[in-house]
Specification:
Helix content of chain B: 25-40%
Structural class of chain A: alpha+beta
Number of strands of chain A: 5
Largest sheet of chain B: 5 strands, mixed
Radius of gyration of chain B: 18 Å
Largest sheet of chain A: 5 strands, mixed
Oligomer: heterodimer
Distance between the termini of chain B: 30 Å
Number of strands of chain B: 7
Radius of gyration of chain A: 17 Å
Helix content of chain A: 25-40%
Largest interface: A-B, 22 and 23 residues
Shape of chain A: elongated
Amino acid sequence: MFRVTRRYQFAASHRLHARGLSDEENRSLYGKCNNPFGHGHNYVLEVSARGPVDANTGSAIDPRRLDELVAREVLQPFEHRNLNCDVEAFRDLTPTSENLAVEICRRLKRSWPGMFPGEWPQLEKVRIAETARNIFEMDAHEIQ
Amino acid sequence: MYLQAGSDVEYLSMLITRKVEFSASHVCRNPRLTDEENQRVFGLAANPNGHGHNYLLEVSVEGDPDPVTGMVFDLKEMKDVLNREVVEPFDHRFLNHEVPPFDRVIPTPENIARDIWRRIEPHLAGPGRRLHSVRLYETPDLYVDYFGEQPCSA
């Protein structure tokens, strides 16, 4: 078994603001990330898949198919967008990087069987770095 | 060029560089252009809701090391200037809405670099030293260098 990881980047903006909390509580909880106009990051996304090496190709995954899937499900809808305003899932959900990792996992998992119809490779992990110092990982098996 | 006190070592002019980071959002649109023209010129960056970057700023000061301290410029003071003049006003802000002059100047990396130069130059220049360059990375693959107002060489 191998784990193969591919790295992608997109630039987007967001604002951390929880609907259920007061303005004061939001400011106190999220600090500068609650600033009303939002701010942005160059997000680095790593997608990991697991599988055996195919005897014919010598590969555990076709990276072009993974690129196509990630581009369609994540990069095209998120690149140069405001996550709060432009991504439906974050209309009512705070786009913390934890929630962003879950949303990316959901999108990839939903479309995975269409791109990789066999038993292998399987989506294993999504890792999103908001800055070089803030990194969030999600085990894909935890997402239904 | 200075001679260090008590030695015959000659110091040549040199550059010292300090890096700081800030995260901000922006939108690149010219209100005098149509939506279609903005889309053509700025592409995805014209999306009216904006998008963001982790900007990396590298500022270089040129000078001779002071014969007493051995330093071109106090790096702690340089850090304080960059934090006060750039990071505090820019970090976690939407540049077009919150950081003048970007309410009327398009916040391309070129214009941001020039604005940063204007903000910090008076605090970094001094006897025997000058601000040499401002390098601003918008992404790891894209940066601009600004050397102050000077004619482009042919």
